[in-house]
Amino acid sequence: MRKALTVVAVAALLVACGNESTTGGQPSMTPSTSSSSGPASPGGSPAEQATADLAKRLGVDAAAVQVVSSAEVTWPDGSLGCPEPGMMYTQMLVQGNRTILEVDGKQYAYHSSASRAPFLCEHPKPPAR
Q1: What pLDDT is stored for residue 64 in this prediction?
Q2: Phi (first) and psi of residue 72, to 5 degrees
Q3: 57-66: long-range contacts at Cβ-Cβ below 8 A with a sequence spacing of 24 or more?
Q4: b/e string for 52-90 if b means 16 or more Cβ within 10 A?
Q5: pTM for this predicted structure
Q6: Contact between 35 and 53 (Cβ < 8 Å)
Q7: 127, 70 in Cβ contact below 8 A?
Q8: Per-residue pLDDT tens digits for 110-123
């Protein structure tokens, strides 16, 4: 009985963690929804972190990346406005940031929270507020 309760508790924790999975730490050269995860690094503001990531992904100088907007937002759940099919997310409001960047006329959305560094979101959903 005790082992069954432990299994249930671990499963509940995994579900509660939502979109906090890693991809091995290797960013791809094409935009993806799960480029980085884990605690936000002290590498500057969310806009600065997102700019550095996008410049590296696209192989361009950071000066070529324009910050269109960067604002604190409230995400409707643990997906941080970037839900992936088949994933389950914490169903509570999450404080975070949405940064929109532009390179050569194309815009890129980066989402983050206090516990997750900015990541590129290919199919962004709007924040709750």
Answers
A1: 97
A2: -70, 135
A3: 57/27, 57/28, 57/29, 57/30, 57/31, 57/120, 58/103, 59/29, 60/103, 64/103, 64/104, 65/101, 65/102, 65/103, 66/101, 66/102, 66/103
A4: ebbbebbeeeeeebeeeebeebebbbbbbbbbeeeeebe
A5: 0.69
A6: yes
A7: no
A8: 999 999 999 999 99
Other CB atoms within a 10 A radius of the CB of residue 48 amount to 15
Structure tokens that stand for 83 in this block: 């839900």
Q: Quote the pLDDT of residue 39.
A: 47
Helices (H), the chain: 2-17, 46-58
What pLDDT sits at residue 21? 38
22: helix, strand or coil:
coil
Q: Which two tokens stand for residue 50?
A: 């997102």
Query: Looking at the chain, how many residues does it have?
Result: 129
Q: Is the dihedral of CA 105, 119, 55, 45 positive or negative?
A: positive
Cα angle for residues 63, 68, 74 (degrees, 5° grid): 125
Distance in angstroms (rounded) separating the CA atoms of residues 35 and 116:
11
